[in-house]
Amino acid sequence: MKKPFIWDHYSDQPYPIKDRAYKKKMRKRVIFDHVELVLKNILLFPISIISMNFFKPTKSINDNFLGIGIDLDKGKDIQIELVNELGVKNLLIRMPLWQMDRVDEYLDFVKSFPKHNILLNILQDREHIEDTNLLKQDITKIFDTFSPYIKEYQVANAINRTKWGFFSTKEYLRWYKIIQQIRDKNYPSLKLIGPSVIDFEYHYMIDALFNLHDIKYDAISSLLYVDRRGAPQNKQMLIFDTKNKIKLLYALTKLSTKTKTDQIYITEVNWPLKDTAPYAPTSEKECVSEKEYERYMIDYLKIAKDSYMISRVYWHQLIAPGYGLVDNRDNRVRKTLAFYSFKKLLQEEQNATN
To answer: Does the pTM exceed 0.90?
Structure first.
C-alpha cells in the first residue's frame, strides 16, 4: 500500500489519509458523482423505507450461517487449531492487491483449510484503481491461482471509506465491471460479491445497487457494523435498530436490478474492546468490555439469523486483540468469553442440521 495510503497493522485497516491537499483534489475530481448520489437518494431512500415492510423472505436461510475471518499474518498453525476447535466451516480470507508478491503464501494458507468454504476478499488499493492494465493482470492471476480452491470472491472492501482507495461509488462500479468482464470471459463458475459498503450508510448502498453500469452482483455483501450505537437493539435515525437495518438492506436487494439473487452476506462485524489501544479500530469512547462484546455478539447474530434475510455472517475476526475472539498479545493466546459463545452457537447450528 503506497502513500498517502498507509496500513495500520494494529487494527488491520488503512490509517485515515493525512494528506489534506490530496483528499481535496480527489474529492473535487468526483464531485459530480456525489451530486448524482444525492439526487438518486432523494428519490429512492423514501421508497425503500416504505417498501421494507412488504418484502418477506421466500425461503429459510442456509443452516450454514456462521463464518469467521482469518489472517495470513496471525499464524497459520494456531489458526488451524482454533478453527478446528470452533468447528466453523465458513472462512473469509483477505487477499490485498498490494501484496501480489505474496500470492504463493496466500495460496499455501488457503490450502491449509481443504475442508472449508472460503470467501476470498480482494482488497483494493489506489494503484490498482488507477492502473487498469495492472488490475486486469493481477485479477487474472488471482483467479488463476485460487479458482481451483475458492469459488466466492468479495470484490473490494469498505468502498465508502476514502482511506481504502475509492473516492466515489462510480469509481467502484467501473472497477467492479472490469473484474466482472474477466470473470465472465474466463471463469464463469466463480461468484462475485459486492458492493461491500461499511456501516449504516445506505446512501452508498443505494448508489451501488441502482445505476446504469452493466454489472451484476451474484450476492450482496455488507459490512453492517452497529458498534457505535452500543447494543444491537439501539436505534439510529429513530427507527433503525439492527433488525430494521437488515430489513432495509433486504428491500434494496429486492428492488435492485443489479442483484442475481437475494442472498446477503454480512462480511464484517464486531465491537471494539476496551483497554486495547492501539489495537482497537475506534476511539476508547466506542469500546466495550469483553462481557458486553459477548452479549452484543450473541444478540446481533440472533437478530440476523431470525430475520431470514441474511444468508451468512462472517465475524471479524478470529485473532485480533482490539476486536477479535482471541487476544494474541504478549506472545500468548487468550480466548475471550465471546470465543466460547461463538463456539457454542456453531455447535447449536450443527446440532440443528443433524
So the answer is: yes
Specify whether domain 7-353 bears CATH 3.20.20.80. yes
- Nearest CA to 230 among 280, 295, 304, 279? 295
- Give CA–CA dist 258/190, Å, rounded: 17
DSSP per position, 155-215: E-S-TT-GGGT-SSHHHHHHHHHHHHHHHHHH-TT-EEEEEEEESS-HHHHHHHHSSSSS-
Question: So what's the pLDDT on residue 1?
Answer: 86
Task: Please provide residue 217's backbone torsions phi and psi, each rounded to the nearest 5 degrees.
Answer: -95, 130
Q: How confident is the model at residue 110 (pLDDT cuts 50, 70, 90)?
A: very high
Cell of 111: 490450502
Over the stretch 185-208, which tens digit does the pLDDT of each residue have?
A: 999 999 999 999 999 999 999 999
The pLDDT-based confidence of 82 (bands split at 50, 70, 90) is very high
- Give every CB contact of residue 40 below 8 A, 6+ residues apart in sequence: 206, 207, 210
R_g of the chain computed on alpha carbons: 19
Domain boundaries defined on the chain: 7-353
CB-based contacts of 229, cutoff 8 Å, min separation 6: 235, 236
DSSP string for 245-278: HHHHHHHHHHH-SSBSS--EEE-----PBTT-TT
What is the Cα–Cα distance from 51 to 234, expressed in whole angstroms? 22
